[in-house]
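User: Hey, my collaborator sent me this sequence without any context and asked if I could get a structure. I don't really work with proteins. Can you help?
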Amino acid sequence: MIEILKTPEFENDDYLIKIKDFSITPKSLNDAMYEDEYLSYKCTAFSLEQISKSQFMKFKNRPSLRNYEHIPDLRGSIYTRKALIENNVGSLKELHFKIKQMLMKKSRRAIVRIANSLNEYYDSELSFPMDTSCLNLIHYLPNNRIRLVFRASDIKNELYYDAVTIYQYLLKPIYVSFDLTIYSSTAQNIDGLNNFSRKIEKILK
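Assistant: No problem. I've predicted the 3D structure and written it out in structure-token form, which is a compact way to encode the shape of the chain:
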């Protein structure tokens, strides 16, 4: 089910993962949320498009929230809100509708941009701390295929949560089951790859 086509060999190396028939049942998701409080909080934030950082205060020691005290909100990490901001659409319903219309025409242009602008990445490094996106884009293709392209991916601490939340709120409304390719141009905490595979296999069963 999970095929690692390119394994990161060192920190900030890239990776390429393919997962066939990616599909999470409501029961599997509910069970996973019950067992994992962080996943539950992330799903709630994605569902409500809620970017306030206060909701994640109890998790501020996680690596992904290391700048918690300095950033104003989590607009870069809550991809349901970020997708609306970057693609100038008013709602997820509108976003999903446009993607479906394009796929009906067998288009290869159904791309949802998530990445920040270069100026925002620049400012976040040098002058104005902000929560920037690690996900660059989602590419929806005909015949039940989707690609996720990351700028950076914390395999150990975030990749599982990214895969589940992105699936539930940005992918499942288009295809309930599909072949998923995940690529990241840099990877962090690469020793977590085997554990990621185990957790994904469990929730997909």
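In plain terms: The chain has one domain: 2-204. You can pass these tokens on to your collaborator as they are.
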